[in-house]
Write a structure and sequence with these properties.
By secondary structure, this protein is an alpha/beta fold. It has helices at residues 4-12, 111-123, 126-133, 137-151, 199-207, 211-216, 226-235, 245-280, 285-313; strands at residues 17-26, 32-40, 57-59, 67-74, 77-83, 87-90, 94-97, 164-173, 177-184, 189-195, 219-222, 240-243.
């Protein structure tokens, strides 16, 4: 039967690591934790986290308390890795904290944790990922940044074999802060992102493509922006320039909403006109009843149109 230390090492899937102990505890929120004490093996104690060179020690401890790394949860139990870090002096990178085999430099999470969050972030909203892993919303972005070179080490390969691409700009902050995004429709992935928008920005994308990469592009989708059409005609004149389905649906819905608004205005004007005519009718109850019914029917028609208009404007529940 294996010891608790060997079991923890196998479950964590750590390499070049020695497990020295573990303990359970419950925090103030009644969440169960397991704290695992670990250290790098003797041959990997004093390695630089950037060049992986063995370096002389600079001091014995750079913190008064052991450092904690968050690992992937074991069910409902939060897993933590504890180790007393120290600094080394690298001839290339200067004085830095020695590398630990289970985490990326400057990360408070294990490698598996960072990589798992990055994978989830590709398929889910960042807020959903943050809630599921019990981390801060901004932490998800930092995990993605740390793992992007591992997941996609050669970004230029994204631009190979592009056939059907989409171009769009979107705002990411208040104050008209825009980014331009290029997507590969065939793989449903983003292949190029840059700050700003306009023809001068889109030209940078086409200028970094080789002649073979430009020739492979057959269809370019986007909104009706003139600068997109000008770049397509200049750099890939043989490909088809199309309006993407998102903007087609958006424009159709906007046109439909305008028709609804016009219908509501006409119906509301009819109600007002009927009320004016009713005031001019003599005070005879038999003559007033048909006119009142007509006003009620016109009001119901206007309210029905207004209800449909408000439903089309209200964002869907997610």
């Amino acid at each position: 039967m294996e010891s608790a230390k060997s079991l923890c090492k196998k479950l964590l899937n750590f390499k070049n690591t020695v497990i020295t102990g573990c303990e359970f505890y419950t925090d103030t929120d009644s969440v169960n934790h397991i704290c695992i004490q670990a250290r790098p093996s003797k041959w990997h104690e004093n390695e630089c986290p950037y060049c992986h060179r063995r370096c002389p020690g600079y001091d014995s401890h750079c913190r008064t308390l052991p450092r904690i790394w968050r690992a992937l949860d074991w069910g409902a139990t939060l897993v933590e890795i504890e180790y007393q870090t120290h600094r080394i002096e690298c001839p290339e990178h200067g004085v830095v904290v020695a590398e630990v085999p289970w985490a990326y430099p400057s990360s408070g999470f294990t490698m598996d944790f960072d990589l798992t969050i990055a994978w989830f972030a590709v398929h889910l909203l960042r807020s959903v990922v943050a809630e599921y892993f019990r981390v801060d919303w901004e932490t998800v972005g930092r995990c993605v940044s740390r793992t992007k070179e591992v997941i996609d080490p050669e970004i230029s390969h994204r631009l190979d074999n592009l056939v059907n691409i989409g171009i769009d700009e979107t705002s990411y902050k208040k104050g008209h802060k825009f980014i331009t995004v290029i997507v590969n429709h065939d793989t449903n992935t983003v292949v190029w992102v840059v700050l700003g928008h306009g023809k001068s920005v889109l030209e940078k994308f086409y200028q970094q493509l080789t002649e073979e990469q430009r020739a492979s592009i057959k269809v370019v989708t986007g909104d009706g922006a003139k600068w997109i059409t000008e770049c397509v005609n200049e750099f890939t004149p043989d490909c088809a320039r199309c309006v993407d389905q998102f903007h087609v649906v958006q424009w159709a819905m906007e046109a439909l909403d305008e028709v609804r608004r016009e219908s509501w205005r006409d119906a509301y004007a009819q109600v007002k006109e009927l009320k004016k005519l009713t005031l001019a009718i003599p005070a005879d109850r038999k003559k007033m009843i048909p006119a009142t019914q007509e006003i009620r029917q016109a009001s119901e028609k206007a309210d029905k149109i207004k209800t449909h208009l408000m439903r089309s404007v209200k964002p869907p529940n997610i």
